[in-house]
Amino acid sequence: MLRYVLPIIILCSFVRPVLAQQDEKISIGVGLSFSPFAVAGDDQNKFGTAGMTNFFIPFQFGPYIRFEPEVGLMLQSNQEQVVDSTVPGGSYERYNDHQIVRTGFGIFYTRRTDKDFEFGLGARIGIMSSEYETHSDKASIQDTDTHYAIFYLGGALSVEYYFSPHFSIGGELQLMHYSYGSPLQTIGSDQLGGYANPTKEQGVYATNEILSARFWF
Amino acid sequence: MLTRVGVILISLLGAGIARADIVSDSTVKAPFTLDSTLAQKDTSEYIPWSQYRWADHQLYTLTGTPPRRYTKIDPLPAYTYLGAYFGILAALHYYQEATFWRSGQSFRIRNNWDESLGANYGGHFEGGYFVSYVSEQALIASGVSYKLAPLYGALAGLGYQTYVEILDGYGSDFSFSPYEAYAQTLGVIYFAASQYSRTLQDLSPKFNYYWAPWIGGQPKAGSMTPIDDYSAWNFWISANIKDLTQWSFWPNWLNIAAGYGARDLGYPTETRIITLALDYDLVKILPDGSPGWNWFRQTLDFFKFPAPGVEWRVTRDGKSAGTHFYLAYPFVKF
Fold it and tell me: Which of A86, B183, B228, B284 would suit a FRET pair with B204, their CA atoms being 20 to 30 Å apart?
């Protein structure tokens, strides 16, 4: 169904006519958003959204259109000495890396009702990627790479309070669709890659909330 | 996969170059056909043609009227141009439904860093740029201001390209490629940044497509359409040498372009292609004419036409596979 809904949402995002003789100021800022909860359906917490922060760059294009690309990162690596049971008294080094990248953008129709308050109605779209890699210095143990992914898309209602022309805090209510992909798993070389559980599909619709702060230049 | 978008749009609209730098240059005489379009209108609503420029040459609009100073949607042109624009996008959607996305799966991501020897990233970069340009032109024709149209155009380019890549993620023959998404986003950013940087305006993305057998090669193994046949494409950045250097001896219509592509993908003979060639600025070479013609030649300038050049072939593992000199790249060798 998504392949029919998606084009409609994308098209609608750009159809809104803009009125004449408005202030067509273009502003840019920096911001951060805080998500208090894990992404719905992430039962094994592979995407680490709970309590994490995304950075974004808000662009205000004229009085009504706001565009916000965002990114969130978590890069974790560790190494450990592992006892090698095949060699008496032997051991080898094992390295584990975990990378989470959350990236996407939002487009909003915004309306300033007075000098302090603004609301926005729009959509957010993006990808969450979570990749686990293992590597060891023992030749007989193959490297592994497992790559999980979520595509998300949904509508959002945001409210924002301006403490000054340059600083605001806000909150956002979202109704999101999360589509969980089959993980891409590679053992050894790239030629041995394939999808784990290729027939499994998981889609989640859920309400969500984020808190945000923006500094406008 | 970005190139998919490019190809079809080219065939429907022509190919081309980008938009305006807001610099005033009172020495520039706008062509007669452009001035005359304002005869019956309140000129204060429009920016002068002398401010609607791209690097060192005039820019043109679809309607022959200069862009508005402030946004005021003109209903008839808006219905016409935005209707045509969305019609093309809908046609593209159905075309890709019938080809790339004909069989579905759950959303998947893939690691395709060196797939197509990286030529696909050139396609996605230039696709993002080109769709932004076409979107911006449709918005200007509809009455969106010179200031907002390129930014909204960039958003439309990003939105459309993202939508295509996401649907790739649901197609069992593809999957979502993060690297392709980065490349197309970079193309959109390049388009938006070019509005504010004359140097970037002097470095224009271009492309060419020649069916592989025409140039002695083989189509990419497993490609479904010309759009994903990266054995047939070259992607270029064309440098406006005259404007960059101000050399008095250099002809203002002559550019130098650096390009990248791949040949014989999926076969033992597959190679990367790195090219350097002369290029022509079609806006300066082709004669002035009606508004439609002027817009067409501006847009046609996205296409890199055959010209003298040198090609360096490199294998997948980085070994040189020979250098070739051309009188008219990629058809006529010295």
Answer: B228
Chain B hits for A200, CB-CB cut-off 8 Å, are 106
In angstroms, the separation between the Cα of residue B233 and the nearest Cα of chain A is 26
Per residue in B201-247, pLDDT tens?
999 999 999 999 998 889 998 888 888 899 999 999 999 999 999 99
Q: What is the dihedral sign for C-alpha A24, A173, A180, A4?
A: negative
The size of chain A, in residues, is 217
Q: Among A95-109, B34-48, B60-74, B182-196, which stretch is predicted with the lowest mean pLDDT?
A: B34-48
Token representation of residue B134: 């076409």
pLDDT tens digits for A33-52?
A: 988 778 888 887 888 767 77
With vertex at residue A15, the alpha carbon angle to CA A14 and CA A16, rounded to the nearest 5 degrees, is: 100
Q: How far apart are CA B216 and CA B324, in angstroms?
A: 13
Q: Are A110 and A72 in contact (CB under 8 A)?
A: no
- Residues in chain A with CB shorter than 8 Å from the CB of B101 are 3
Tokens standing for residue B87 = 């019609």
Residue B148: which of A24, A101, A195 has the nearest Cβ?
A24
Six token digits for residue B257: 């372009």
Q: What are phi and psi of A174, to 5 degrees?
A: -130, 150
DSSP states of B103-131: SB-S--B---TTGGGGHHHHHHHHHHHHH
Spacing of C-alpha B21 from chain mean position: 17
Print burial letters for B22-50: b (CB count within 10 Å at least 16), e (below 16). eeeeeebebeeebeebbeeeeeebbbbbb
For residue B73, give the nearest of A60, A123, A20 by alpha carbon: A20
List residues bridging with A92 in a β-sheet: A82
What is each CA distance from B94 to A3, B90, B97, B102, B292, in whole angstroms? 11, 6, 5, 10, 28
- Give A80's Cβ-side CA count (13 Å radius): 8
Q: Which residues of A touch B71 (CB under 8 A)?
A: 18-20, 22, 24, 62
Phi, psi at A10, each rounded to 5°: -65, -45
> How far apart (Å, rounded) are the C-alpha atoms in residues A30 and A68?
9
Report CA B29 to chain centroid distance, whole Å: 27
Assess contact for A177 and A148: CB atoms under 8 A. no
Please list, in sequence order, all residues whose beta carbon lies within 8 angstroms of the beta carbon of residue B34, skipping any fewer than 6 positions away: B49, B58, B60, B64, B66, B291, B294
